[in-house]
Amino acid sequence: MSQPKPRRRITIAILALGGQGGGVLADWILHAGEHFGYRTQGTSVPGVAQRTGTTVYYIEMIPLAEQGDQPILALMPVPGDVDVVIASELMEAGRAMVRGFVTQDRTTLIASTHRVYSISEKSAMGDGTADPVRILEAAARRSKQFISFDMDAVAARCGSVISSVMFGALAGSGVLPFGREAFTGAIEHSGIAVAANLRGFDAGWQSARPGAAEAPVATVAVPQPTTEAGRRLVERIRTELPAQAHAFATEGVRRLVDYQDGAYAGLYLDRLARVRAADDGALNWEMTRETARYLALWMSYEDTIRVADLKTRASRVERVRGEVQAKPDQVLGITEFMHPRFQEVCETLPSRRLGKALLNSAFATKLLAPLFANGRHVQTTRLHWFLMLKLIAGLRPWRGATLRFHEEQERIEAWLALVVATAATDPEAAREIVQCQRMIKGYGDTFERGLRNYAAVVSGFTAHSGPGGGALIRRLREAALADEKGEHLAAALSPRRAAS
User: Fold this and answer.
1) Is 40 helix (H, G, I), strand (E, B) or coil?
2) What is the reported pLDDT for 323?
3) Residue 98, Cβ neighbours under 10 Å: how many?
4) In what side-by-side order are the strands of the sheet with 108-112?
5) Most distant CA pair in the chain: distance in Å?
6) Which residue in 250, 405, 413, 470 has the fewest CB atoms around it within 10 Å?
7) Of 50-59, 214-223, 484-493, which range is least confident?
């Protein structure tokens, strides 16, 4: 079989996160080039922790027959002079474009479309995730050839690792003048999990070939009731709420039954029915639909009981085992960092009066608060810590008697009352008040900060007179979500404060 004529110098940049096998992928490419008669050189520059650290691997190769004198190969990619860019995650493709590695006249961009969120995205007060659509559109526009699919999902499906799928996608792209046997030979020569890596390679090769069928879009299944009580709740949703709210309300019921019990889920539907009665149906019943979402989140607030429950579930241990790819015969140890504050302990005691008395007692605070001043590392897979968390999780039947429960129900009722009252005169503002629940999340300092911001936004709205209430709430809410220190919110409120 005749081989394609080798091209001159080929430049390849690989952007991979730590632990994704970028170094192994680079070694495979180097071996394939050497096997096909190229002089190859590879370098790597490790990055610092965006997520688990990003490394740029750079490869240059030139045919031996065209070398003449000893060639000088570069150590780093040069903007505008990269033939192939391989990105192990979508935002890495975006960073490659920002750095000028991707150009329309020469670059084949191969990128996985899955996301590994950065610290800044995870820690944002609101939705800090970057827009993947913009990256995909820019990649298609700025590259000569753009190959993209969820390589992480493909790797999981075939029991391999993402580096082998990326290698297969590179081979399937046809951009390198090597036959398939050069690629598979590199995997076999490495001797590293050969069977699994060949499966991943083949899946990547098939997905990158012209005309490859796109993977079906994953859909979220609506939970189905398994008990008579659950069926009664779902029937209430169907008869009492508009169809546009059914999906969120059904998931809300499932979440609250799991969080507390069926009666608590019934209270959720009672509250939703009040909002539904005040909703004029505008914008596709947006007020009722979004209340179904945010009310479920607020009613399942995170207390120590909930945290202990989630951390001791068998499903969580199995999920972690899958994430670290632990084998059945391997022992898994999980170490958590926990920092329950004295206030949170008081709020969890199965007596509202006792919790309030301790929290308001200067003597108790001085004596007991230092015990909870510092966080600690807890091995939840060790028996005594596991049993301690199980004991805390077992307080769920008494949650309704706790101080925190009563405080949260009062806050929720005040929020809903404001929504319903505002809907009578300003439906747009009422819909924006519903969205304000986004500010209240997490626990500890994060939760307290969210409450303060929410109170400030509501105060700014109630002090407002005249039209434009919805726009005002939206502007204040986005300012509150812009930074942790509250500087944007203070700046947004300052003219109104000065006027008052």
Assistant:
1) strand
2) 77
3) 10
4) 38-46, 54-63, 10-17, 84-87, 108-112, 145-149
5) 88
6) 413
7) 214-223
The reported pLDDT for the residue numbered 406 is: 96
- For residues 53 and 58, what is the distance between their CA atoms, to the nearest angstrom? 16
- Residue 397, amino acid: P
Give residue 299's pLDDT: 96
> What's the pTM?
0.74
At a CB cut-off of 8 Å and minimum separation 6, what does 266 contact? 233, 236
Between the CA of residue 247 and those of 220, 224, 253, 259, 497, what are the distances in Å? 10, 11, 10, 18, 41
Domains with residue ranges and CATH for the chain: 10-208 (3.40.920.10), 220-300 (no CATH)
Q: Give the tens place of pLDDT for each residue, 203-247.
A: 999 998 876 655 554 555 677 888 898 999 999 999 999 999 999
pLDDT at 152 over 80: yes
Structure tokens at 368: 């007991």
The tokens of 40 are what? 């190859």
Contact in structure between 352 and 360 (CB atoms under 8 Å): no
Cβ neighbours for 245, distance < 8 A, ≥ 6 positions apart: 237, 272, 276, 285, 288, 289, 292
**Residue 335: in which H helix or E strand, if any?**
strand 335-338
Cα→Cα distances 241→222, 236, 431, 435, Å: 16, 8, 17, 19
| Calpha distance 62→41 (Å, rounded) | 9
pLDDT digits (tens, 9 = 90+) for 385-398: 999 999 999 999 99
H-run or E-run covering 340: none
Provide the mean pLDDT of the chain.
Answer: 87
Q: Which helix (H) or strand (E) segment is 62 a member of?
A: strand 54-63
Contact 149, 136 (CB under 8 A): no
